Amino acid sequence: MASELKNLSDYSNKNLSTELHTVKIGILVSEWNKEVTESLANGAYETLIKEGIHTDNIVKDYVPGSYELPLAAQIMIEKAEVDAVICLGCVIQGETRHFEFICQAVAKGIMDVNLRKNTPVIFGVLTTDNQEQALARSGGRHGNKGVEAAAAALKMIALKK
Fold first, then answer.
1. What is the pLDDT of residue 70?
2. Would residue 41 count as lying in a domain?
3. What is the per-residue DSSP string for 55-74?
4. CATH number for the domain harbouring residue 100
5. How many separate domains does the chain show?
6. Looking at 21, 54, 98, 142, which residue is catalytic?
7. CB 146 within 8 A of CB 9
8. What average pLDDT does the segment 47-70 reach?
9. Each residue of 104-148: pLDDT tens digit?
10. Is 80 contained in some domain?
């Protein structure tokens, strides 16, 4: 969780794999709240490149909204044969309970794909009260959740190897 004491863009290189030249990673990006999700995607992509992933080994695709991320992750694992999938989205609280249902479904769906496919599927979905909080966590004053998600993917790949 981002706060004044923890920046999402700060991560430890501890437990990052040193054999990344063969690793293939998928990035799935929700088109909903695109200003936020594109910034998350840029943070994830730049982190993967910085840590040694070759551009040819990064598969990026889009889904309409965060709700579609779990199924898209499963499809990407099966068709693109990736070592991990980074799911990036942003759900902002509105006036109805729709927010709660979407957030719970996405979190559970991503967890289920992790376990069913035995492949790291990273939850890089912001669940915020407002646009200001989302912007603060997608490259703003609290860092970038996409950076954190990319680091988590690399650490989970290293753990699996």
1. 98
2. yes
3. GGGEEEEEESSGGGHHHHHH
4. 3.40.50.960
5. 1
6. 98
7. no
8. 97
9. 999 999 999 999 999 999 999 999 999 999 999 999 999 999 999
10. yes
